[in-house]
Write a structure and sequence with these properties.
By secondary structure, the protein is an alpha+beta fold. It has one domain: SH3 type barrels (Roll). The chain is elongated and about 45 Å long.
């Protein structure tokens, strides 16, 4: 169990670097909203407003974060409580 506690802390630190779901961002392909995140890969999927295409980009390739969100703001602790550490995410590694 101590291994999972360590991984949880690392995951929390990595998650802090990623904008929340629904956040409006600007990427090379245009302006859109984050519709999915991958904390381990440090990527987000952005749905581009003009085309409705979805593109996966690393967080380093986000040019601007506007701070507006399509979704209600949820506290970080609530987001992390929904993570199932026994899920396939850990099994894939």
């Amino acid at each position: 169990m101590c291994c999972l506690a360590y991984e949880y802390e690392i995951y929390r630190e990595m998650a802090k670097k990623i904008p929340r779901l629904g956040t409006e961002v600007l990427v090379e392909q245009g302006k859109g909203y984050i519709v999915d995140v991958n904390v381990i890969k440090q990527t987000v999927v952005v749905e581009i407003e003009e085309t409705n295409n979805r593109v996966e980009v690393t967080i380093n390739n986000i040019k601007k974060i506007f701070g507006k969100s399509k979704f209600k703001k949820v506290e970080e602790e609530e987001d992390l409580k929904n993570i199932n550490l026994d899920s396939d995410v850990l099994e894939e590694e």
